[in-house]
Design a protein that fits this description.
Helices cover about 40% and strands about 15% of the residues. It has about 475 residues and is an alpha/beta fold. It has one domain: TIM Barrel (Alpha-Beta Barrel). Helix 8 runs antiparallel to helix 9, helix 9 packs across helix 12 and helix 13 runs parallel beside helix 15. The structure holds 4-nitrophenyl beta-D-glucopyranoside. 4-nitrophenyl beta-D-glucopyranoside (PNW) binds next to loops. Keywords: Glycosidase, Hydrolase. Belongs to the glycosyl hydrolase 1 family.
């Protein structure tokens, strides 16, 4: 990989999210989010932890910026904690000037160091009051209006930010939050796990509401802010790569495509094509909401860029029985082994993640084709390491497995650009540092920087942090 194939202004760097790194849950007037509430329920987080301290980044912005400088990063993707800005969340609730001041200064400090901020408005941490007040994400009228108000407050407060992401992975908030119940607010039909929830319906309603809220915020940005500030706005979607379990079986080939549609096209088809995928309409029937004319006008064409989060791949096997009511995959199985016994990739600490860089290449090409060659930013990509948390520090910082993951995935990205003409403008590795890995707590580490949770949150760069910069610099054009 010696050829310089990426554009001169290609942005590479690292990503994080507010609840996973900030800590300081009550500092300067912050209100609780649904994740504070969820973490307090026994059994929801593997190690019984929460984001109460995390990396203490709220008090260590200078350290985090120094880390970014050390890696040579050109960009940093972080998210804003809505309940720091509007502690109760709603459009008639007071705005907290201290919350705004914090992010304003952070953006200024990043820019002073020449680091381009990529700002996510919502990375799962809904103000808890909105969930209690009217059912949060399930309530289209109220929630869309409150999100629009919050978005406008942030666009107004941070005119120097030119790269906005409305939502991070609405699939996760919808499915893990309202179907399996693994994530906040933990709704599911499984009454052993939650007293409330309807896995067959709520997730599809929430997904629909995300699209309307996204379209509404984008309209506000384009009409009220883009003309004076410039800048771009898009949504970030997650999606794993797929291979048919049996390449010779047309039903597995079809199921693999259906898996992409149920995860990615659920959101991307309405935005780029103006309708839900036919496979979803067919399986879900009237449980999938329909768009009114006004809603469609908001949603269609609402991406200036496509934000892509990507980690892993699966073999896909079709199911022979009719889909269950709570099925969200498209009536199929996701497997780590193919019919011929081929393995998808080595195990990591995350049950769902196995490295397979070829899948990344395939998916980039698929996306580019299906959505007519959009401008893509890879807004997350990275891996955990099996057993990393149990290793001594000198072994943890020598994370060759993670370094090799990045070599493979960045190589696949370069190939998609140079050989397939995919339009990729930036790449943000997940994550700048070890952090609160949601339901997995602190046992699973994703950082290129080690964070010592027992030792005053001290940060130490790992090997992987040091290889990404030189790798990108060798493939970015200089002229
Ligand atoms: C993404 N899954 O989440 C998130 O955007 C990050 O906040 C998170 O830390 C990172 O990936 C690593 O997990 C996901 O179960 C969480 O398939 C879970 C899944 C996928 C993505």
């Amino acid at each position: 990989m010696s050829k310089a194939v990426l554009p001169k202004d290609f942005l590479w760097g690292f990503a994080t999210a507010a609840y996973q790194i900030e800590g300081a849950p009550t500092a300067d007037g912050r209100g609780p989010s649904i994740w504070d509430t969820f973490c307090a329920i026994p059994g929801k987080i593997a190690d019984g932890s929460s984001g109460a301290v995390a990396c203490d980044s709220y008090n260590r912005t200078a350290e985090d910026i120094a880390l970014l400088k050390e890696t040579g990063a050109k960009t940093y993707r972080f998210s804003i904690s809505w309940s720091r800005i509007i502690p109760l969340g709603g459009r008639n609730d007071p705005v907290n000037p201290k919350g705004i001041e914090f992010y304003k200064k952070f953006v200024d400090d990043l820019l002073k160091e020449g680091i381009v901020p990529f700002v996510t408005l919502f990375h799962w941490d809904l103000p808890d009051e909105l969930d209690k007040r009217y059912g949060g994400l399930l309530n289209k009228e109220e929630w869309v209006a409150d999100f629009a108000n919050y978005a406008r407050v942030m666009f107004e407060a941070l005119p120097k930010v030119k790269n906005w992401i409305t939502f991070n992975e609405p699939w996760c908030s919808s499915i893990l939050g309202y179907n399996t119940g693994l994530f906040a607010p933990g709704h599911t039909s499984d009454r052993k796990k939650s007293p409330i929830g309807d896995s067959s319906r709520e997730c599809w309603i929430v997904g629909h509401n995300f699209l309307i809220a996204h379209g509404t915020a984008v309209k506000i940005y384009r009409e009220e802010f883009k003309p004076k500030n410039g800048g771009e706005i898009g949504i970030t979607l997650n999606g794993d790569a797929v291979y048919p379990w049996d390449q010779e079986d047309p039903l597995d080939v079809e199921a693999a495509e259906r898996k992409l549609e149920f995860s990615i096209s659920w959101f991307a088809d309405p935005i780029y094509h103006g309708h839900y995928p036919a496979s979803m309409v067919k399986q879900l029937g009237d449980r999938l909401p329909t768009f009114t004319k006004e809603e469609l006008d908001l949603v269609v064409g609402s991406n200036d860029f496509y934000g892509m989060n990507h980690y892993t791949a699966n073999f896909i096997k079709h199911k022979k029985t009719p889909p269950a009511e709570d099925d969200y995959l498209g009536n199929l199985e996701t497997l780590f082994e193919s019919k011929t016994g081929e393995n998808i990739g080595p195990e990591t600490q995350s049950f769902w993640l196995r490295p397979n860089p070829q899948g990344f290449h395939n998916l980039l090409v698929w996306l580019s084709k299906r959505y007519n060659h959009p401008k893509i930013y890879v807004t997350e990509n990275g891996t955990s390491l099996k057993g990393e948390n149990d290793l001594p520090l000198e072994k943890i910082v020598d994370d060759e497995f993670r370094a090799e993951y990045f070599r493979g995935y960045i190589g696949a990205l370069a190939k998609a650009v140079s050989e397939d003409g995919v339009d990729i403008r930036g790449y943000m590795a997940w994550s700048l540092m070890d952090n609160f890995e949601w339901a997995e707590g602190y046992e699973t580490r994703f950082g290129v920087t080690f964070v010592d949770y027992e030792g005053g949150q001290k940060r130490t760069l790992k090997k992987s942090a040091k290889i990404i910069g030189p790798l990108f610099e060798s493939i970015i054009r200089k002229d």
